[in-house]
Amino acid sequence: MSEPRGSERDPRLDLFRGLANWAIFLDHVPNNAIAWMTTRNYGFSDAADLFVFISGYTVAFIYSKTMVAKGFVVAAISILARAWQLYVAHIVLFVFYIAAIGYVAQRYDHAHLLDEFNIRRLIADPIEFLKHGLLLEFKPLNLDVLPLYIVLMATFPPILWLLVRSPNVALAMSFVGYTAARTFDWNLASYPDGTWYFNPFAWQFLFAIGAWVSLDRSGMVDRLIRSRGAFWLALLYLLFSLVVTLAARFGFAGELPTPVADIFIPNDKTNLAPYRILHFLALALVVARLASRSASFLRLAVMRPALICGERSLEVFCAGIFLAFVATFLIELVSASLAFQLLVSVAGIVTMTAVAHYRTWIRSIGSSSSARSWRTV
């Protein structure tokens, strides 16, 4: 059986998961100039890809140990229990989110928010839409990531069983499913129409890649990271992605060669285009080569806010989704100036960090002084 690569917590995972939460918050605020700091503007992949990859890595890291030590049944029950926690968190966020949008729309006479955040029809027929919300079929704007992760977690036990025994076979089967989904347009239906924004049949492949990397005992990942050829190829692909993405962002897509524009524009996020996966893996390879898990900068005080947001990722993610709506409303109500956008963006990140500190403090009450456990989201 394969076991996780290493036994110590990798601070890079927490750092980049925290940064991904910040980026998701910034990207969810429309017309926010501060969002130009996030990676989605400079390449094919974005914070969602990072979030899913790290989630797959940490889930495999944790529950493969449980499976080896206590058996498949215990590991499967633990995974499903975690999926249930995620589901409960999503429903709580769903209810508060809808209530807040409805209140603001009514209190400040901003009825357009009902359309902008996709809840007008819910207000007209609450019972039917709430039922489909509980079934993860109806999702207001920006509430797409947690349903994806719930589905990936709930279906992970048999994949973990195969990953522990034969990681390469498990990854190959995941790739087959990914290819079939893109070929035959497999996706889950949304209510009242359309399909899931994050196609779980496609995004499961990136989740599986993360899981495979965490369980790799062949040394292939380490060899790729150390390879100068792979490093320079990754840099060239990142540069190509930068040029194409900026051309699309600034309206110069027509200046690109027709085959390039046809393949890469628009960026297919729903079905996780192969070039998104390659871009993320190239970026991950470069980062892993330049910043080892023992890098001294990871211990700097300035990194602590992002690290703790990664450690308390679920709570911070939910807070970020809610705060993105608050930020959107404040920018619209008060000012759309760059200074106010900066103020709202910084205040949101500070609030998310405060939530992470609070949750860490609450969890520390009555707990032992043992090392902190890995988190799965």
Number of strands: 0
Q: What Rg, in angstroms, do the CA atoms define?
A: 21 Å
Task: Supply the helix-strand structural class.
Answer: mainly alpha
Low-confidence stretches: 368-374
The major beta sheet can be summarized as: none
Helix content: 55-70%
Question: What is the beta-strand fraction?
Answer: under 5%
Shape, principal axes of CA atoms? globular
Number of helices: 17
Order of helices and strands: HHHHHHHHHHHHHHHHH
In total, the number of domains comes to: 1
Note the gap between the termini.
25 Å
Average residue pLDDT? 93
Describe this structure as you would to a colleague.
This protein is mainly α and 377 residues long. The protein has one domain (11-364). The protein is built from 17 helices and no strands. The protein has helices spanning 11-27, 47-70, 72-107, 112-116, 120-124, 126-134, 145-154, 156-165, 167-184, 200-215, 220-226, 228-249, 258-264, 274-290, 304-311, 313-333, 338-364. Helix 2 packs across helix 8, helix 3 packs parallel to helix 16 and helix 8 packs parallel to helix 10. The longest helix has 36 residues, at 72-107. The protein is globular, with a radius of gyration of 21 Å. The chain starts with 10 loop residues before the first helix and ends in a 13-residue tail after the last helix. Residues 368-374 have low confidence and may be disordered.
